Amino acid sequence: MVSRVRVWLNRTYAENVFFMDQLRRNPSDRAVEIHATHGDPDSPVLAAADTADLEPEGLSPAAYVEFALAVCAKRAIDVFVPRLHQAAIVAHRAEFEAVGTALLAPPPEAVAVFRDKVIAYEAVQAIGVPVPPWWRVRSADELLAAVEELEAGGHKACFKPASGAGGVGFRVITRAPFSLLHLNGFPTPYVQLDLVLRALRESDEPVDWLVMPRLEQPEVSVDCLTGRDNVVRLAVGRTKNGRRRGFTLDERFVEPARRIAEGFGLHHLSNVQFRMFGEQPVLMDVNTRPAGGLHQLSLCGVNAPWAAVRVALGDDPGVIEPPFLGQDYTVVSAPRPVRGVSVPPQRVEEAAVLPTAVAEPAPVQAAAEVLPL
User: Fold this and answer.
1) Hey, is 329 helix, strand or coil?
2) Quick check: 53 and 354 in contact, CB under 8 A?
3) DSSP characters for 157-192?
4) What are the Cα distances from residue 355, in Å, to 36, 51, 82, 344, 360?
5) At residue 352, does pLDDT exceed 80?
6) H or E stretch including 150?
7) What is the distance, to the nearest Å, from the Cα of residue 219 to the centroid of all Cα atoms in its chain?
8) 253 — pLDDT class (breaks 50, 70, 90)
9) What are φ and ψ of residue 361, in 5° steps?
10) Distance CA 19, CA 174 (A)
11) Most CB atoms closer than 10 Å: which of 146, 165, 228, 365?
12) pLDDT at residue 1, as a whole number
């Protein structure tokens, strides 16, 4: 009799309820039990799990590793999918293996390269992957010089943290003076150059930003599954152009994504993002974790989460070719249950006692689903 697989997702995105759904509906028909932890008691991820705990707040990366090791031992976790404190966790892979837990994450060397976007851009350029022009800035004068050079070339300038995830901190520079026009409609990512320069000059807080031209759509996110032998088993692009989403196997995007995943040993699941600089696709970002939209590959007949769990357990699924590319679609919100009782966030000193959550019928919280256009 084949034993069940116990999988843990730590503090992660709400969209990963679909990651969990796909694990349970795996084509191997193998029993999967899912443990989830989060800092938000109303996260739908907690309600979707078989067992769930609130995470202690305020732990240092080192303390979080100790917490994670204790969870893996207590819960008999077979596969741990870390998002929070990924870099610290993968540095202790041997200790997790000693308690019987495989990490579904790349080795520490690969994670380190892509934590800093400047280091990442320099590294991928060295293997021939195109990147946009970029400047690292830490002062108002450096920002102004970069913006002026980009504008002289006919580009709009934007900036984002050199280290960060998703769109956090992303802004587009405008020279249009602030007026009531900017208070109409919905908020936008545009920010006035004079306000940014003033804030930098008046603040003692250091910044570390990457300045580059604003890149154009389509945006293509290539989801990769790579074995420990550095060979990609799966690479499919998800396209985004406004509300319209779709899929692609266009080698302009898939080939450089493969080169990055194999060249830097991005074992297990990674996501490589491209946008257009003129007529050329250029690298935008590399995520060393499963993308929030990974479940959308199910529209191509692919269960990527389960294939990744198989790789983590040492079972090679072989090369995975999508049997078809799904039709174009859009993303909408849909209700998902939350836990029946909302538990206040824990204090750090209470971390030793972790309440177990039981999924019950409850009020609902929105999460993203995909629908054909």
Assistant:
1) strand
2) yes
3) EEEEESS--TTTT-EEEE-SPP-GGGGSSS--SEEE
4) 12, 10, 20, 11, 15
5) no
6) helix 140-152
7) 15
8) very high
9) -60, 135
10) 39
11) 146
12) 57
Look at residue 367 and give its three-state secondary structure.
strand
Residues 6+ apart with CB under 8 A from 9: 16, 19, 20, 34, 35, 36, 37, 45, 49, 81, 83
Interval 351-359 mean pLDDT: 39
pLDDT one-digit tens code per residue, 58-99: 999 999 999 999 999 999 999 999 999 999 999 999 999 999
Question: Residue 371 burial by CB count (10 A; 0-12/13-18/19+): exposed, middle or buried?
Answer: exposed
Read out DSSP for 252-302? HHHHHHHHHHHHTT--EEEEEEEEEETTEEEEEEEESS--TTGGGGGGGT-
Instruction: Inform me whether the pLDDT recorded for 360 exceeds 80.
Output: no
Residue type, 131: V
Query: How far is residue 89's CA from residue 107's CA, in Å, rounded to a whole number?
Result: 10
Contact 345, 306 (CB under 8 A): no
Buried b (16+ CB within 10 A) or exposed e, 170-187: ebebbeeeeeeeeeeeee
Instruction: Cis check for the bond before 206: say yes or no (omega within 30 of 0).
Output: no
Average pLDDT over residues 359-363: 38
Spacing of C-alpha 211 from chain mean position: 21
pLDDT of residue 245 exceeding 50, the answer is yes
Residues belonging to the chain:
373
Within 184-247, residue ranges assigned H as helices are 193-202
Token representation of residue 205: 């807080």
Token digits of residue 109: 């060397």
Q: Which of 149-163, 172-186, 352-366 has the lowest mean pLDDT?
A: 352-366
In whole angstroms, give the CA distance from residue 50 to residue 291.
Answer: 22
pLDDT at position 281 over 70? yes
